Q: What sequence folds into this?
């Protein structure tokens, strides 16, 4: 599966984020809870290396609790925090304000002693379509940034204020020039961080990657039976037949069936699936 993933605006965005980082107190680093390790952009990690970081396992409702605990143990570092949430739920991010104040307590206390009502400056970062703008809108209690269920909606930096005294900087979703592990690129494609129109055979590779572990979920969702060592194309055919994905000449419509499978995964209809 050939993946084109690094348009010019991402290079510009990374440069701007690097310049802005000197003004930032804490970084909210959003990760999709279904593939948080694949969501680590090494360039973002390098840019934020000297800042306090709160890692956010977003879309945590789509993942089993045992996997949340596993990822928290991997991500937790001495000076960082890890929070699991669903950014689409009202007030879901209030715990982030508490975590940020905890990390910055010494600095806030120093400002208060000088009579300064300090606004904590937060940079919100992550790969495309991980939920940054949705989270910011929930933190503000009102829609202040543009959101969309596709990569590339946020194209420039946006500062917004909250009632709790935080200044939030929304940033464009950014990827990196190359993947050392092809599975990482596929995982990012499955969660929607790469535009679908740039990809071929996405559903085929998805079925190839998840059937061994989650074949029972596919069987339940599409009312099919999957035999041991069955090929992804055969599974795709069964799903298309089960869901009547047919062309006018009664041939199977693999394109429509494939899009249905990926959409079902992204919206949690298949069940709780972890890619990492």
A:
């Amino acid at each position: 599966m050939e993946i084109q993933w690094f348009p010019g605006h991402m290079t510009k965005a990374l440069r701007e984020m690097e310049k802005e980082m000197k003004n930032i107190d804490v970084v909210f680093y959003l990760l999709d809870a279904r593939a948080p390790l694949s969501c680590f952009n090494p360039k973002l990690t390098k840019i934020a290396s000297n800042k306090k970081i709160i890692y956010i396992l977003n879309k945590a409702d789509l993942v089993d609790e045992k996997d949340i605990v596993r990822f928290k143990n991997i991500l937790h570092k001495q000076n960082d925090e890890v929070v699991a949430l669903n950014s689409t739920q009202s007030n879901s991010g209030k715990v982030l304000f508490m975590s940020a104040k905890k990390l910055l307590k010494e600095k806030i206390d120093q400002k208060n002693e000088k009579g300064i009502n300090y606004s904590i400056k937060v940079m919100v970062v992550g790969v495309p379509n991980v939920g940054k703008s949705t989270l910011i809108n929930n933190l503000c209690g009102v829609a202040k940034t543009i959101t969309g269920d596709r990569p590339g909606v946020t194209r420039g930096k946006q500062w917004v204020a909250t009632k709790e005294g935080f200044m939030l900087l929304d940033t464009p979703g950014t990827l990196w020039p190359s993947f050392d592990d092809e599975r990482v690129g596929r995982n990012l494609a499955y969660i929607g961080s790469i535009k679908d129109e740039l990809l071929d055979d996405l559903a085929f590779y998805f079925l190839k990657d998840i059937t061994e572990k989650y074949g029972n979920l596919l069987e339940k969702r599409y009312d099919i039976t999957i035999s041991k060592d069955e090929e992804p194309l055969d599974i795709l055919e069964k799903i298309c037949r089960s869901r009547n994905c047919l062309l006018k000449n009664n041939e199977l419509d693999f394109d429509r069936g494939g899009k249905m499978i990926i959409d079902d995964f992204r919206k949690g209809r298949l069940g709780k699936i972890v890619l990492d």
About this structure: The beta strands are 26-32, 52-58, 81-84, 120-125, 158-161, 166-170.
